[in-house]
């Protein structure tokens, strides 16, 4: 059931959905066209290249989609799902397909038909100024929502991830994170409309009460709370989602605290925890970025070192000096009337000032012109005020044909524990001769430790090594009791295998639900390591 792998450098060959022959596939494509319109089904191999993983891993990248279907509304999604059930065609729903570092738009299972809900379902259905929420279709990007709020003179602001080109719905459904006080996107999700695997449609929360005036106001409704079952999942295709939006504050100020040494990590985290857990004075989701990540956005690796192996200590020191940054750089934003900002900033300085060598800068104190090292501070200031950006994309210029694979373990907000996790990853990146570009994204009681492994996407050896490194780290992290919050398509089985408490009780539960709701196994087989019965136990 494997198909011919395609590579990014050669023209794609046709792949078929597993189990279908050319004739059945052509028939199904014709049926899809009847539903969504001729031009809204893409089936030419050359046109499918846009739906490949932009940062493929493994010597031979996965084969990709057999076709892409672009429905215009919920009813069309239902019709597409019903046809897929007739033919047993695996569907891979995407919103905008910008899940880069985790597989992009590519399906987990080669030969799946991508359902591109974002292509035509791009309406902002409602922005409620008084209650502070938006109701969105899956194609609405952060940039689009931002423009809408701006042009309508809204007093609301959104929370975006580092890159603003993706879908608000898609990022939330993958449990992505942002950096304002509303940074935990799923926490602020306020109700879904979902097409189920056999084509029925449901609304969650108060949306199940016909005529409810509170769909986006109370997410839990009555009875079991299913919304989480539609995140990182293959149990449905979300066609509408509500998201809470905070009020734009009267003022805001961003700051950078630089810390000299790698081992400062432990004290930074221990000082940070009580300030964060109470949401004051650390009001937003702060980030602790290492020097390689900050340097990576404003320079190329060759400027600092052009040899093989990891960046030598001398090069790291030169980066710190020339960019006027620390090994660790802590970025946060304060919101409120100026006296609140002043008081909180004083508290932050008192607390972190205990660490020898800590230096403090506000975004106003380090204007960006002629100060490359201040670039991240200003980009954070935008993002933390709900202004989407694409600046971080420059990280991919660090090395030629740059791509990144994310290794994303959850870390306790405990100094010693965070230091242990940092050393565990660093030991292996050093051994692999690759760079550790990383950040800790600080939630309330946990940190997302994101290691971005940068590699040359045109080099099969580098692609394979990056995959091997990450696979090994997933295992090593699990041996220490750590798990990842999200992972690349190629590693989903590996990560799910580590969530195996109680003889794999969690995966067994997911499989039973999967088989009950999706008996034909058509929605995103293999997503998050959950395979429907017909593919289970095979290797894909
Ligand atoms: C980042 C990247 C991620 C993620 C969270 C944050 C930010 C990078 C690619 O994955 O899951 C600068």
**In DSSP terms, counting alpha (H) and pi (I) runs of 4 or more, how many helices?**
14
- Helical fraction: 25-40%
Radius of gyration: 23 Å
Proportion in β-strands = 15-25%
Quantity of strands, as a count: 19
Largest sheet: 8 strands, antiparallel
Main features:
disordered N terminus, 31% helix, binds 2-methoxy-4-[(1E)-prop-1-en-1-yl]phenol, alpha+beta, 14 helices, 540 residues, 8-stranded antiparallel beta sheet
Can you describe this structure in just a few lines?
With 540 residues, the chain is an alpha+beta fold. The protein has helices spanning 22-36, 74-87, 142-151, 168-173, 264-277, 291-298, 301-304, 313-323, 338-352, 375-383, 415-432, 460-479, 492-498, 501-517; strands at residues 41-42, 67-69, 91-94, 113-116, 124-128, 133-136, 156-157, 189-195, 201-203, 237-244, 246-247, 252-259, 287-290, 328-335, 359-362, 402-407, 410-411, 437-442, 447-456. It is globular, with a radius of gyration of 23 Å.
Account of the 3D structure:
With 540 residues, the chain is an alpha+beta fold. Strands 12, 13, 14, 15, 16, 17, 18 and 19 form an eight-stranded antiparallel sheet that branches. Strands 5-6-10-8-9 form a five-stranded antiparallel sheet. β8 and β9 form a beta hairpin. The radius of gyration is 23 Å and the shape is globular. The N and C termini lie close together (8 Å). It binds 2-methoxy-4-[(1E)-prop-1-en-1-yl]phenol. 2-methoxy-4-[(1E)-prop-1-en-1-yl]phenol (EUG) binds next to β18 and β19.
């Amino acid at each position: 059931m494997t198909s011919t792998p395609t590579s990014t450098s050669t023209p794609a060959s046709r792949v078929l959905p597993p189990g279908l022959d050319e004739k059945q596939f052509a028939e199904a494509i014709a049926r899809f066209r009847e539903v969504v319109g001729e031009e809204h089904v893409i089936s030419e191999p050359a046109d499918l290249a846009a739906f490949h993983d932009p940062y493929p891993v493994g010597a031979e990248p996965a084969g990709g989609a057999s076709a892409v279907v672009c429905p215009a509304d919920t009813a069309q999604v239902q019709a597409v799902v019903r046809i897929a059930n007739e033919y047993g065609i695996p569907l891979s729903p995407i919103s905008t397909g910008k899940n880069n570092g985790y597989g992009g738009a590519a399906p987990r299972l080669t030969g799946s038909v991508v359902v591109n809900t974002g292509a035509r379902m791009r309406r902002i259905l409602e922005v409620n100024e008084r209650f502070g929420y938006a109701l969105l279709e899956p194609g609405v990007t952060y940039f689009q929502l931002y423009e809408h709020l701006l042009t309508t003179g809204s007093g609301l602001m959104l929370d975006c991830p580092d890159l603003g080109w993706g879908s608000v719905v898609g990022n939330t459904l993958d449990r992505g994170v942002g950096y304002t006080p509303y940074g935990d996107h799923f926490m602020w999700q306020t109700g879904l409309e979902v097409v189920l695997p056999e084509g029925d449609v449901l609304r969650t929360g108060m949306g199940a009460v016909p005529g409810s005036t509170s769909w986006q106001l109370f997410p839990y409704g009555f009875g079991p709370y299913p919304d989480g079952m539609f995140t990182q999942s293959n149990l449905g295709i979300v066609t509408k989602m509500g998201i809470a939006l905070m009020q734009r504050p009267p003022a805001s100020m961003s700051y950078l605290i630089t810390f000299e040494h790698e081992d400062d990590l432990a004290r930074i985290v221990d000082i940070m925890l009580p300030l964060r857990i109470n949401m004051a004075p650390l009001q937003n989701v702060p980030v602790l970025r290492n020097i390689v990540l900050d340097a990576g956005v404003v320079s190329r690796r060759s400027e600092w070192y052009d040899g093989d192996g990891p960046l030598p200590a001398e090069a790291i020191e030169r980066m710190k000096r020339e960019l006027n940054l620390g090994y660790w750089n802590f970025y946060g934003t304060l919101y409120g009337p100026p006296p609140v900002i002043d008081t909180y900033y004083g508290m932050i300085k008192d607390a972190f000032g205990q660490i020898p060598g800590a230096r403090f800068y506000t975004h106003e104190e380090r204007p960006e012109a002629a100060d490359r090292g201040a670039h991240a501070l200003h980009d954070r200031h935008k993002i933390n005020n709900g202004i989407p950006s694409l600046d971080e994309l420059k990280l991919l210029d660090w090395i030629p044909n740059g791509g990144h694979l994310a290794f994303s373990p959850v870390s306790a907000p405990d100094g010693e524990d965070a230091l242990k996790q940092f050393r565990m990853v660093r030991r292996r990146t050093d051994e692999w001769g690759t760079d550790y570009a990383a950040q800790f994204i600080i939630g309330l009681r946990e940190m997302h430790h994101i290691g971005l492994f940068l590699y040359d996407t045109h080099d099969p050896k580098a692609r394979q090594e990056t995959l091997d490194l990450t696979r090994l780290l997933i295992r090593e992290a699990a041996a220490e009791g750590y798990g990842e919050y999200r992972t690349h398509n190629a590693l989903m089985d590996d990560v799910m295998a580590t969530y195996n408490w109680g003889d794999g009780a969690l995966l067994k539960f997911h499989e039973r639900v999967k088989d009950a709701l999706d008996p034909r196994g058509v929605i995103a087989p293999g997503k998050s390591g959950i395979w429907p019965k017909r593919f289970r136990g095979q290797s894909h």
